[in-house]
Write a structure and sequence with these properties.
Elements lengths: L3 H15 L4 E6 L12 H5 L4 E7 L2 E6 L3 E6 L5 E5 L13 H4 L7 E7 L4 E5 L6 E6 L23 H8 L6 H6 L9 H11 L12 H20 L41 E6 L2 E6 L5
Antiparallel strand pairs: 1-6, 2-3, 3-4, 4-8, 5-7, 6-7, 9-10
Helix pairs in contact: 1-7, 4-7, 6-7
The structure holds zinc ion.
């Protein structure tokens, strides 16, 4: 499942192909993904120019010159594929796009042909992804955005906020960090990594962790995310890079997926353990994470 760094990588990959460009033709090939698409989505997208591509949590937000914003969520298996214009016969042939690209495949659910002949395809085999349109002026009142806590890389996520948010919480810190109302966009992988870096066990009760240790989590979370974004996001299963080629940048994890292997903390003789919390695997070292 794509996490925040992967979504940010996708957003960055889409930016040069979409921003400032008009959608010449939108092809919406089924009525829904996780939820029904908004009424008339293809018509509302066709002809629109993309003014800005933003990210909020794991949502990509395309601000259009029509006053609407296209919200994209990749869900479990969603992929954005970019096919550049066919150089031989493709340039400046508005309306001819179907001749320039291969026919959409089974899981290509939304196809956007840009005015320069670039084709952007939203492919989602498991269909947990989502697309919606809302008036840009409504800001973050959309039901999917209104519930989100601060961005982990934004100014709203700081020591004072984080301490207040965890105060009195009886849930394990692992669950608290996955709670999108506390901090948005964090997923299983990067929570495991940040906890390992700070020596905090995922089993610790959130409200019982000292202020000093909670404070140390803020930069640790920012660092693990920033490093992953830097390396282009991590590669898991069939997730593809935005340029349509197989694979994603391989990112190495200190604990995630390393059950039974040696802990990488200097001088720690422990091995990585795996426990299941709320149905999700937590990887940690019970020697140096307390
Ligand atoms: Zn260790």
């Amino acid at each position: 499942m794509p996490e925040l760094p992967e979504v940010e990588t996708v957003r960055r990959g889409l930016e040069p192909a979409m921003v400032g460009k008009r959608i010449a033709l939108a092809d919406v090939r089924r009525p829904n993904l996780r939820w029904p698409f908004p009424d008339g989505m293809a018509d509302r997208l066709t002809g629109a120019r993309i003014e800005r591509l933003r990210r909020r949590s794991k949502y990509i937000l395309c601000d259009l010159d029509t006053g609407e914003t296209l919200l994209i969520h990749l869900g479990m298996s969603g992929r954005m594929l970019i096919a550049p214009p066919n150089a031989e016969n493709g340039r400046d042939m508005l309306g001819q796009f179907h001749h320039l690209h291969p026919a959409p495949e089974k899981h290509d659910h939304v196809v956007l042909d840009m005015e320069d002949g670039t084709r952007i395809t939203f492919n989602d085999a498991r269909r947990f992804g989502a697309m919606d349109l809302f008036a840009t002026e409504l800001g973050e009142t959309h039901k999917l955005l209104a519930v989100l806590g601060p961005e982990p890389l934004g100014n709203g996520f700081d020591e004072a906020y984080f301490k207040a948010a965890l105060k009195g919480k009886n849930t394990p810190i692992k669950s608290a960090l996955l709670d999108q109302r506390i901090v948005s966009g964090l997923g299983n992988i990067y929570v495991c990594e940040a906890l390992w870096r700070t020596g905090i066990s995922p089993l610790c009760k959130a409200g019982g962790i000292s202020g000093k240790r909670i404070a140390s989590l803020v930069p640790a979370i920012r660092q693990v995310l920033a490093e992953a974004i830097e390396s282009g996001g991590s590669s898991l299963k069939d997730y593809r890079q935005t340029d349509g080629e197989l694979g994603y940048f391989q990112h190495s994890f200190a604990v995630y997926g390393r059950e039974g292997e040696a802990c990488k903390t200097p001088d720690c003789a422990g091995n990585i353990k795996r426990v299941v919390q709320s149905g999700r695997s937590s990887f940690f070292c019970n020697t140096c994470q307390r």
